[in-house]
Fold:
Amino acid sequence: MRRAWQTGMIALARSPKIKRWAQEKGLAAGLVGRYVAGPDAEAGIARAKSLLGQGIRSSLFYLGEYVDRPELVAENVAQERKVADLLGRAGIEVHVSVDPTQIGHSLDPALARRNGLAVAEAIAAVPGDAPRLMMIDMEDRTVVDPAIALHDALTAAGLPVGITLQAYLRRTEVDLRERIRQGAAVRLVKGAFAAGREHAFVSQDEIKANHRRLIGLMLSREAREAGFRPVIATHDDRLQDHAVAQAEAAGWSRGEYEFEMLYGVRSALAERRVREGHRVRVYLPFGRDWWPYAIRRIGENPRNAWLLARSLIGG
Ligand SMILES: Cc1cc2nc3c(=O)[nH]c(=O)nc-3n(C[C@H](O)[C@H](O)[C@H](O)COP(=O)(O)OP(=O)(O)OC[C@H]3O[C@@H](n4cnc5c(N)ncnc54)[C@H](O)[C@@H]3O)c2cc1C
Structure:
């Protein structure tokens, strides 16, 4: 049932016809408010400011997905640079999430490297002393090596950059140990993709067990001594509890590591973590191309069926 629901929602997210129809007609526009800050960078900044009032930090993400034309890549890069500039002007933390394919990886990996450098340099150049980071999102298995190479090159150039690693992949333990040794910033997620057994853990139990083990490495004494910056990105409260217990046992204080969740997903849990004294961030998308992102979020939980139905009726 869960799988059929998710497959159906992914098909809806990918259909260009339905996307155009939904976005033009404002169909299910209620979903935009739930999962997306708004149509432009200004709306993203306004939402980030109001979240900060509740003690929640943001990572801004421009919704330009499935890009297959150079002009769309250029627009994505321009929006990422613009939002970094606006965050700086607003005097809040300059934290921007970037997908490798969004900056041109599928057109030409060298273009993605140049664009990654341009966005990271723009973030570094924002005036003021607000903390700043370009967080590289992780996509399917074929992108992992180039994404890590981009991260390592930008780190070596002294630019503020972090990388997302995925618990479903068998290779992640090796990738993570090396980034811990570097004292890098790593956001650990479950992984929104699938791969064969030779590359990936396949069952939910295996993935969860690996996720727990990797959280243990991220919040170890050795990681803390290396200056590693752990970001635990999950909505699973039991995995978060495991992280808290692990952190306490290894001498990490609250605020030295971070929980990150998607904007609009389990907000009460995010608010609870803030009350408990944790550092919490949300992944905050903005842009007009909101349909695929919002529908994927709906697809992550069959209990969201009512939300989709209500949005369509009201939309
Ligand atoms: C900040 C952040 C960045 C991410 N970046 C990437 C990335 O770069 N690459 C990548 O592959 N994946 C990324 N992901 C997605 C991630 O890989 C998972 O697919 C997603 O987070 C779901 O896994 P989970 O660990 O939250 O656990 P789950 O077991 O899926 O969820 C835990 C609990 O939260 C509930 N829940 C989850 N989603 C929803 C929802 N939409 N609505 C209501 N309840 C929900 C579930 O029902 C369950 O109770 C990111 C996730 C986050 C939070």
Remarks:
- The chain has 14 helices and eight strands.
- The first strand starts at residue 56 and ends at 62.
- The pocket of flavin-adenine dinucleotide is lined by residues 137-138, 164, 166, 189-193, 233-236, 260-262, 265-266, 283, 297, 300-301, 304 (CB under 6 Å).
- The beta strands are 56-62, 94-98, 132-136, 161-166, 185-189, 229-232, 258-262, 279-286.
